[in-house]
Amino acid sequence: MKLSFRWPIALWFLIFSLLGNPVLAAQAKTAPAFELAADKIFWQRLSYRAESFIGKMTSNISLATLPEEDAADNLITAAGGCAVKASGARVFFLESHSNIKPLFGSNEIYTTQSWIDSNSAAALQRIRRREGREMWQKSYRFMDKGVFRLKKKPKDSREAKLPLDKWTQTRESFYDYAPANPNCSAILEPGGLLLVASVIKQWQQASPLNLCVFNKKQLYRVNVSLAGIRRLKVKYIEKSGIENKRRDTEIDAFQISFEPQSLEQTPKNKEEFSFLGLKGGFDIFVDPRFGLPVQIRGKIAAVGKINISLQTVEFAPDN
């Protein structure tokens, strides 16, 4: 018996597209909900340092939990749909200060503040501020259909000397998710990936993860995978209450790889994914004892490949 299959041309085209185009294939998958075990993050302050022969970098990170009503007071009002709201009574407030000092050129100083849902790691709001030769502040409010951005900068050198609330050059933008067809259960911001790494014991059996992350102007699918266990030299100070302990040893660290891929097929704005000043993909090495990110490895545009090593950790009370 001879069987004949006559599939519509459109169906063949769809199959070919999904198999041959990794971006479309990624879009066809639903990014599963990520549940963040907030009580499994044991650190509240991290200090990092990196040096190479063409530059150096320092980064200080703090994490706090806020009552939902206190967090709501700091969220800006935005147009473009319904704003993302916290799913519970507590919200994470993540703040980072990074100073990149290349051997040639001017320093780049960045401050980032993020309000993050303590259950799903979904981003509520992100504020990025740059100081130095180029000054600006960009506030991102996450909505159900996209991200609203308010950019402020001084209009001239005179205004640059004034407080930020006196800056008069402003611009509003809205970045719609629809063109990327993300099919995401939650949208994260880059800083939230540090929290994901900190709770690796929660998800390591489900590795790899596919998370949706909005960077600056584009939505990304970030593949998060446990790349193995690496023997790593660590040297940092542990602060717990009034006690300080110097740790200088070798550990078996989890190596977590983060590989971002833009979901926009024809992006209008060229950009590279950015995490703590690193561009593109990066790795985080985690001490499994407390889910502690002891080293971050990646590339900085003005410096090149670099290892960012933990210098100090302050644990949350009762840890």
Describe the structure.
The chain has helices at about 10-20, 20-30, 70, 155-160, 190-200, 200-205, and strands at about 45-50, 55-65, 90-100, 110-115, 125-130, 135-140, 145-155, 170-175, 185-190, 210-215, 220-240, 245-260, 275, 280, 280-285, 290-300, 305-315. The protein is mainly β and about 325 residues long. It has one domain (about 30-315). The strands form two sheets. A five-stranded mixed beta barrel has the order 11-12-15-16-17. It has a two-stranded antiparallel sheet with strand order 13-14. Strand 4 and strand 5 (about 125-130) form a beta hairpin. It is globular, with a radius of gyration of 21 Å. About 35% of the residues are buried. Mean pLDDT is about 85; it is low at about 1-30.
